[in-house]
Design goal:
Length: 264
């Protein structure tokens, strides 16, 4: 059995206080899982990974000299952007595609995927954030990047990008303002998804400890090739640098979640 790393950490200057995350960067599976009973073509779809995000995050990390954590496994295996008790953690059906390798699934295999993939990824995220906080002497700004489909169930999505969030507006409001400033794109505010999801990556690593953060979604057709990725990296890099220079985004400030009271 070949070694399969569930995450990749891109090195950067942790003292700069910016950490980038890409939960769904890749569509890979360990060799022993085959293709989960699916056709190869399924792994080119959005249900397997966030199209364009790996390349975008690599460019942003290089431009900003910021560390980044990339998920290296397909979300069809297990979704790192879900809490451990979320029923959609391992999907039996995703956007109409039945996943034979996920149903039926034993409790033992469920725990195996948590232990081998989900938990190590989140440990890497925790470690990278902690190292940035220690190096800079203050909490880092955390930016998570995802991509969304240009249409859903036959309905076109007009947004070029979106900012998702729960209840901490510190990074969100200036980010939306700066994205809209050029006047050439439509920016969704918790569209096409709501950013309040109990147990997800932002909830776990940012909402609970009180770290300023935002989740950026870019429409997939805009970053489906090298030219698109380069254009969006050029657009986002100076904006993220400006956000990172704001002292207010480097302080612990816990906000209540719209999903309910925190445990513990």
């Amino acid at each position: 059995m070949r070694h399969f790393s569930p995450y990749e950490i891109i090195d950067g200057k942790r003292e700069k206080g910016l950490v980038l995350l890409a939960d769904h960067a890749m569509n890979r599976l360990p060799q022993e899982y085959g293709r989960l009973g699916l056709a190869d073509s399924v792994f080119e779809r959005h249900i397997a990974y966030d199209i364009g995000i790996e390349s975008l995050v690599r460019r942003l990390s290089a431009a900003l000299e910021a560390p980044a954590v990339l998920g290296c496994f397909s979300r069809l295996l297990i979704d790192p952007n879900r809490g451990e008790d979320d029923p959609t953690l391992i999907m039996k059906i995703s956007d109409g595609a039945i996943v034979p390798g996920n149903h039926p699934i034993t409790d033992e295999e469920w725990q195996n995927r948590l232990n081998r993939f989900h938990r190590p990824y989140h440990e890497a995220v925790s470690q990278t954030i902690a190292e940035a906080a220690a190096a800079g002497g203050k909490p880092p700004l955390v930016i998570s990047l995802h991509s969304f489909t240009p249409a859903w169930k036959g309905i076109a999505r007009p947004w070029h990008a979106a900012v998702l969030w729960d209840n901490d507006p510190r990074a969100v409001f200036p980010l939306i303002e700066k994205l809209e400033a050029a006047g050439d794109i439509i920016v969704g505010n918790n569209e096409p998804y709501d950013g309040a999801l109990r147990g997800d990556t932002m909830y776990r690593h940012c909402m609970m400890p009180g770290i300023a953060h935002a989740l950026i979604e870019v429409r997939q057709d805009l970053i489906a090739d090298a030219a698109g990725v380069a254009a969006w990296a050029e657009r986002l890099a100076p904006i993220l640098a400006e956000l990172n220079a704001m002292p207010a985004l480097h302080a612990y400030q816990r906000h209540p979640s719209r999903t309910g009271a925190y445990e513990g």
